[in-house]
Amino acid sequence: MASDPATSLLQTFDYPSEAPEYSIKWTRLGPQNAQPLVFIHGTPWSSRLWAPFALALSSKYCVYLFDNAGYGQSKLLTQEATAEFAGNGALVKQAEVTVALFNHWGLKTGNYARPPQAPHVVAHDNAGLVSLRMALQHNCVYKSLTLIDVVAVGPWGLPFFKLVAENADVFNAIPPPMFDGVVRGYIRDAAHKPLRTEDEDVLASPWVSGEGRPGQVGLVNVLKQAHTRKSDDVEKQYHKIGESGLPVKIIWGKEDKWVPCESADKLKELIGGKSEVVLVEGAGHLIHMDQPERLMAEIVMFLGQVDGTS
């Protein structure tokens, strides 16, 4: 997961524009007149997880990469935004901010009639819930939706989330070298195979670097939010995605310990329509690391089918 200058997030979107509370770092790769393709990361990751995939697909697509508010290089600018973020387990605000970012890019919201330049959207982890909220509650129009080991159906939560949420002050007070171990242990647990040290460093860096330990406080807030995750209000609408005819592919690591692969079939049943499920052997929640070639092949094959080029 070596850094490539082409995937550096050099552009900024502040929301709302008149009194910014969220500052989103983003970039665009590939021909600007090509079919748009948006990668969305989840918890506790950043756009770095998608960077190799974005770079590889930028020869054919206009690819958008960004860090969600409160992750990676994207910042929460006010105490109010920070408090709202920590308590926003339903990810309603995150969906609102991401819709505004899509509109900033010219990827307009509308009805389910899909124009040719509607974006393909590829979502991992809680970006699944965010992307589904965007479509169902904000009328975001996609050409296709790829959902990868997503957080989108209950029941929710890892015991670790509950532990952090109930002891936030303790976790914020852990000395940095010890907190570094907590972060790395948490990240390793998402992978089925041992992570390379350099990849682990990239994934951990937003949470363990910087003066004043902003990453430590940030990760504690992220995990507090994860403990309050809920989707009941939108799960009952998932069938509308299937009924709309939107092509949906659900990809899951068969060894995912965070969100067991049984959730893939449950999600497919709720969405219905043209949705399909692919289970990937030898992959956990971090399927990007465990089986990158297989994941890339599944994404490319699906996009090609939808575009009529495969």
Explain the layout of strands and helices.
Blueprint lengths: L10 E5 L6 E8 L6 E5 L10 H7 L4 E5 L8 E2 L2 H8 L5 H14 L14 E6 L1 H12 L5 E7 L8 H8 L1 H6 L2 H15 L6 H12 L5 H14 L4 H4 L3 H5 L4 E6 L8 H10 L4 E5 L6 H4 L1 H16 L3
Parallel strand pairs: 3-4, 3-6, 6-7, 7-8, 8-9
Antiparallel strand pairs: 1-2, 2-4, 2-5
Structural notes for this entry:
The chain contains 14 helices and 9 strands. The chain has 310 residues and is α/β, with parallel strands linked by helices. Strands 1, 2, 3, 4, 5, 6, 7, 8 and 9 form a 9-stranded mixed β-sheet that branches. Helix 1 (51-57) links the parallel strand 3 and strand 4 (62-66). The chain is globular and about 55 Å long.
Give keywords.
310 residues; alpha/beta; nine-stranded mixed sheet; 9 strands; 44% helix; 16% strand
Task: Extract low-pLDDT stretches.
Answer: none
Main β sheet profile: 9 strands, mixed
Alpha-beta classification: alpha/beta
Radius of gyration from the alpha-carbon trace, in angstroms? 18 Å
What's the multimeric state? single chain
**Share in β-strands:** 15-25%
- C-alpha termini separation: 28 Å
Give the helix level as a range of percent: 40-55%
Mean pLDDT level: 91
Instruction: Tell me, briefly, the overall form.
Output: globular
* Total E-strand runs: 9
Counted by DSSP, the helix tally is 14
- SSE pattern, N- to C-terminal: EEEHEEHHEHEHHHHHHHEHEHH
